[in-house]
Automatic annotation (TrEMBL):
Name used for this protein in its record: SRPBCC family protein
Species for this entry: Streptomyces argenteolus
Coenzyme Q-binding protein COQ10 START domain mapped to chain residues: 11-117
InterPro entries: COQ10_START, ORF3, START-like_dom_sf
Membrane-spanning ranges: none
Length: 147
């Protein structure tokens, strides 16, 4: 059984900031609560280490599409089955909308329970909220430098 989720968040930061943060692998553990570590293997592949309720998991994901300031898409090539896309939408000069879509195959009781009870959606919303805080503080000049 495949599961999917689609979540969005409006952010008081321009697309240039939201895209720059999301496209920087070093930022991911700051806003993806279940991500412990992401290591680039080359320009398109990344090794992920996750800590999820009831299990630690690892997988390798590959970027399948990158359109600067528009979209980043990926799929796993090793480990769990997972694919997704994040898109960046300009609302005005100082704000943007980030949309996250993920397709995955839940494995084990905890992942099936998360899919059935929408806990995966709650986690995605939490993570997008953390991303919103990071992007807004960055846009205000309080966040990561060099963006």
């Amino acid at each position: 059984m495949s599961s999917s989720l689609v979540e969005t968040v409006d952010i008081k930061a321009p697309v240039a900031v939201t895209y720059a943060l999301w496209s920087d692998v070093t930022q991911w553990p700051k806003f993806l609560s279940h991500v412990r570590r992401v290591d680039p293997m080359d320009e398109r592949r990344f090794s992920w280490q996750l800590s999820l309720p009831g299990a630690d998991k690892g997988f390798v994901a590959e970027l399948t599409e990158v359109v600067p300031q528009d979209r980043i898409a990926w799929k796993t090539i090793e480990g769990v089955h997972h694919a997704g896309v994040v898109t960046f939408h300009r609302l005005d000069d100082t704000s943007s909308r980030v949309a996250l879509q993920i397709e995955y195959d839940p494995n084990g009781f905890v992942e099936h329970l998360g899919a059935l009870t929408n806990l995966d959606s709650v986690l995605a919303n939490y993570d997008l909220g953390e991303f919103q805080k990071l992007a807004e503080s960055t846009a205000a000049g309080d966040g990561p430098r060099g963006l």
